[in-house]
Amino acid sequence: MRHFLMSGLFAAMIAVWCPMAFADCNDCGTSDCNASVAGSPSDVACGPQMVTKTIRVPQMVTETRVVNVAKTRQEERTRTKTVYRNVSEQKTRTESYTVKVPQQRTRTESYTVKVPYTETQSYTVRVPQCSTKTVNYKVMVPECRSREECYTVMVPYTEQKTAKYMVKVPYTETKVVDYTVQVPYTETKVVDYTVSVPYTEQKTETYSVNVPYTETKIETYSVSVPYTETKTETYSVSVPYTETRTEEYTVSVPYTETETRTVTDACGCPQTICCQVQKTRCETRTRCINVCKTRCEERTREVKVCKTRCEERTREVKVCKTRCEERTRTYNVCKTRCETRQREVQVCKTRCETRQREVKVCKTRCEERTRCYTVKKCRPETRTRTVKYTVMVPECRTREVKVVNMVCETRQREVCKTRCETRHREVSYTVCVPECRTREVSYTVCKKVPEQVTETYSVCVPYCEQQTVEVQVCKNVCKEIQVPVCNCCCN
Description:
The chain is mainly beta. It contains one helix and two strands, in the order H-E-E. It has a two-stranded antiparallel ribbon. The two termini are 44 Å apart. Mean pLDDT is 79; it is low at 18-45.
């Protein structure tokens, strides 16, 4: 960059200095500096001459220099550290615990029983009564008519046209490209590491065990024994029966009618067409139907009623209890000690390499082509057709309609109800009463005992090293150039 700046500065100085040198040639007092001086013995022309001069031009030069490089080396050092070891110690303490002791108690409780009884009740029934009624109604009767009308139809036709278009045609070129590859290589390195080696110690401890045992106990309990009683009751049954009656109903009878509609064809032009439309008209018809009705009948049946009576019974119950026992056991304790070992480690490194490869580049060039295409057009035509249409004409008719009226009747029936009665009974139950007891428990306490341990570790120590490096330096180099010099006749 510095070389380019110095070259540009030198060219600018020459461009400024040359016009000033040529401008001094007009100070001779003559109109032409190239003309000869009158009476001069020589025929030398008054004009610029080229002279060789030496200048200094900046140029990049490669030099070899000695540079200090900071590096590190591994050193083994020793240090002392404090390690805490767990030491077990057996201790005994007295603790209080609570035991639930069962006790048998008796209490009197009240309970409610539902006692059934019969009651006569009045109720109202709505009985239907049929009657006939004459009704006038209007019916719309269709009437078919016809008329002539004119409509316009768009008739399609096709035309052929030619158009030019541009196409980009792809082609492939091969190009050589330089790229950098990171080539891996492996180095072997020795590393110190610490291993925890396990070893086993045996310890003996005393512990308490709750040994279960079973006791048999007799208890009294109440049982509700079910028994069945037979009871006669009267109930009402709705007995169905069928009646036949005649009724009128309305039916929708389909018929076909021609209509005129305006549609749009593929070219977007309106077009009138005739189409058949399905419609319906209402007609009144008569049919016989079966009507299902019911009548109420009184019947009698025997019903089994389930009841219970209370009985006192005795049973043997096994109660599980525990007693405390002292036992001894031996167990293994796993501990570790530190050891320093060495191993070889493969370290993966990379170095840069420049390689070449051929790359295919896809490019395109423009070409002009011609194609034919079809255009659809439409022209209008006027046509005549006969259209049928239907007009609805009102017509008055008469029909008989059956009307059902509901009449209220009062009847009586027996209803089964229940009333609540309060009774008393004695119930035995078990209550667990808490009782406080004392026992001795042995437990283990771990204490931390400090120890001094010596270990070896690695440290990276920095140091300086001199290396020879090639450096690009900008220096001034001598160069000869041709410079114009003014040699006027007046000088």
